[in-house]
Amino acid sequence: MALQKDKTTLADDQLVRGSQRGDMVAFEELVARHRDKIYARAFSMMRSEDEALDISQEAWVKGWQRLKQFQGESSFVTWMTRIVINLCLDQLRKQKRQKAESIEQMSEDSGGVERQMPVVAANPTEGLERRELRARIDRALNQLSYEHRTVLILHEFEELEYKEIAKRMQCSIGTVMSRLFYARRRMASLLAAFKREELSP
Amino acid sequence: MNEKQQLELQAYLDGELSARAARRAAGWLAQNPEAQALAAELRMTQGALAGNEPEATVAESREFYWSKIERAIAAAERPEPESRSVPGWRLIWRRLLLPLSGVALATILAVGLIRSGADDPSRHLTEVENLSEFTVSHSFGSDKMFVVWIENRAQTQGDNPQSFDDDDIVIQ
Description:
The complex is a heterodimer of chains A (about 200) and B (about 170).
Chain A (H helix, E strand, L loop, with lengths): L1 H7 L3 H9 L3 H23 L2 H17 L10 H23 L14 H4 L13 H13 L3 H12 L4 H8 L3 H27 L2
Chain B lengths: L2 H11 L5 H13 L1 H17 L12 H16 L10 H31 L2 H4 L1 E5 L4 E7 L4 E7 H4 L12 E3 L1
Antiparallel strand pairs in B: 1-2, 2-3, 3-4
Helix pairs in contact in B: 1-3, 2-3
């Protein structure tokens, strides 16, 4: 415990350097510091607490094993987030295969529907408290297919470019653009629907 | 607006277009109310999501969460146990055993076939018949032919080995 207390005062990069030298206590402090963020990313993609827990822990194990490769080009937590995203994508692909559906052949489940959706003119999130807004976004994300949810998360939360998303999702840039467009339009539509629910007696 | 225009508008808002394409999209957007409405919606969604990622926290305690990670790391770093159960010479023997047993089986089959062929009386026995006091007939049969030849008794007895005539042979 005394050792843990000592580590809490250290910055991430100091803990990373310690971990790279094989200091497990330093690594444990990094895990404790960032486990919620890594878990949250896994949960946002997998939508299952158990899977998110397993994948986030697997990500930490991989992080430890690959620590020597971390050169500090990004922050440690960004680097770890990339690892957990890749594990989630692998797991989602496996699940797709088990359902005998190819990711490449998957139906866009938009089928052009997004072009028929009426444009949401009034901002349905206006006046919402942050906590409520997050809850609604979470609810809306839950209603998207994993392909649309993933592309939205990677673009809006991870701020990845189309090219990088295409690489990670193993699809074309055109597919990324089309999925992102649908996901955004559907998100707007769902947020508007939640607003209508709130207003209805 | 067609699909291509919609996706180009989105790419413009995301800063994914080249400078030239972006100028073109901006000019077109300024003159198209439908595109402006769509752009407003896309911007609104983007704004709502920015910085508002739903939060989730690990329900497990720090120690419990870490213990699984620690065990997995230790298991991965544990050296592979030495292959003490099977000595090297036995492994080599096992590797050789399969081809050797195959060769032995093939040899047994080949010998069996040759021997069964040798035992076939129709292939090797020649029937000898005395036709008269001076002539003897020999007949020999196999699967595909039947050979008969006639010879003088004197020839059989070795008196005049050169007198054998090919015309005496009958093949059926």
